[in-house]
Amino acid sequence: MKRLVVVLLVAVALLGGVGSARAQGQKVKLGVLKLTSSAVLFLGAEKGYFKEFGVEPEFVFFQAAQPIAVAIASGDLEVGATGLTAGLYNIVAGGVRIWIVADKGREWPDHNLTALLVRKDLYDAGVRSLRDLKGKQIGVTQIGSTFHYNIGRLLEKEGMAPGDVELVPLQALGALSDALAAKRLDAVATAEPFVSRLEANGTGVTIIRTGDSLPWQIAVMFYSDKFAKDRARAVAFMKGYIKSSRHYFDAVLKRKDGPAFEDVVAITARYTGARPELIRRGFPYQDREGRLMPGDVGRQTAWWFKQGLIKAPIQDQDIVDESFLREALKGMK
User: Fold this and answer.
1) DSSP-assigned letter for residue 313
2) Any idea what DSSP says for residue 202?
3) Alpha carbon of 152 to those of 142, 167, 198, 263, 306: distances in Å?
4) 171 with 102, same domain?
5) 97 and 140 in one domain?
6) Which of the 8 DSSP states describes residue 108?
7) DSSP 292
8) Complete DSSP assignment for 264-286
9) What is the pLDDT of residues 188-212, one digit of tens each?
10) 146-157 vs 296-306: helix crossing angle, rounded to 10
11) Which one of 64, 98, 159, 227 is least enclosed by Cβ atoms within 10 Å?
12) Torsion angle of alpha carbons 156, 132, 204, 35, nearest 10°?
């Protein structure tokens, strides 16, 4: 009997060891853009915050936000980290379950993630406002993108109509910069670090910094329905994300200088390929605990529906699920 007990204990220990080894560093396919706003994720991967909870992000890089939502819907990704788009909302309106689970970046005063830039020669000729761009071409990544939303809402604030400018979709952020440099566009709506690059090389001049004019929940973390149903992994990933978010907030948003700040700059520069001096200029705001702006998703879907770019209105409860965040926070100091 004693021998049987010993054998059973050894077996349990071995099985427990195998289970633990499997849990350590379980890959999670994560769609992301090479933007400054992805700093929290790059930081978490480099510092081992996700591994600490048994998961590890496997980055899959994209050129625009909407294809990430498509990849989540098709099952090619488990987690997405990018801007909120009409494409994402349409997928949900069509019956596919995708869950917005945490903050990944807000347009916020003094923490601008995106901007509207005009060509330097046009700026020098007197184009200084959105009204001065009436009848001109503004580059965006895609129709239905976060940049489309920015321009649409900013036009409304100016008392202008959507048709007062021509939106030109070029699919990728790099293509927007190239088109502005080649003078094929009059202006572009783009994000950091591309904003700072265009300013630094004299191609464009910023006339509107979005966060100062239009605070909104521009970017989020979202889960595929399959990943959300794997509750243990989904909560483990969120714990790693919260730890990363706290580090980012304290090092970047609270201090804005010192060794911890420079460490985040160096990590972000390595992943994005942008120079550190450009990275320093454009870190976005996000909640320290990863909480979303209350009610903003509903405001966005109502606007897209009004524009005729989503099929049906979407309620917050149809797409937002902060239960993973709440559960993860309960187990953390």
Assistant:
1) -
2) T
3) 13, 10, 22, 37, 12
4) no
5) no
6) B
7) P
8) HHHHHHHHH---HHHHTT-PPB-
9) 999 988 999 999 999 999 999 999 9
10) 80
11) 159
12) 10
Question: Token pair for residue 34?
Answer: 């090479």
Residue 268 belongs to domain with CATH number: 3.40.190.10
Judgement on whether residues 256 and 166 belong to the same structural domain of the protein: no
Q: Where are the alpha helices (DSSP H) in 29-145?
A: 39-47, 66-74, 86-93, 120-124
Phi, psi of 285 (to 5 degrees): -85, 140
Tokens 């409860």 belong to 317
Verify that 243 and 314 share a domain, yes or no.
Answer: yes
| Residue 17 included in any domain | no
181 and 101 within one domain: no
Whether residue 96 sits in one domain with residue 121: no
Q: Would you state the torsion angle of the CA atoms of residues 12, 17, 22, 24, taken in this order, to the nearest 10 degrees?
A: 140
Q: Amino acid letter at 304?
A: W
Coarse DSSP helix, strand, coil percentages of the chain, rounded to the nearest 5 percent: 50, 20, 30
Burial class (CB in 10 A: 0-12, 13-18, 19+), 115: buried
Identify whether residues 237 and 297 lie together within a single domain.
yes
- What DSSP element (H or E) covers 11? helix 2-23
pLDDT at position 25: 67
Tell me the per-residue pLDDT of 239-296, one tens digit each, with 9 for 90 and over.
999 999 999 999 999 977 899 999 999 999 999 999 998 898 878 899 999 999 999 9
Judgement on whether residues 198 and 253 belong to the same structural domain of the protein: no
> Domain of 176?
114-213
From the list 40, 30, 33, the residue with the least C-alpha distance to 190 is 33
Residues found in the chain: 333
Whether the full predicted model's pTM is greater than 0.90, yes or no, is: no
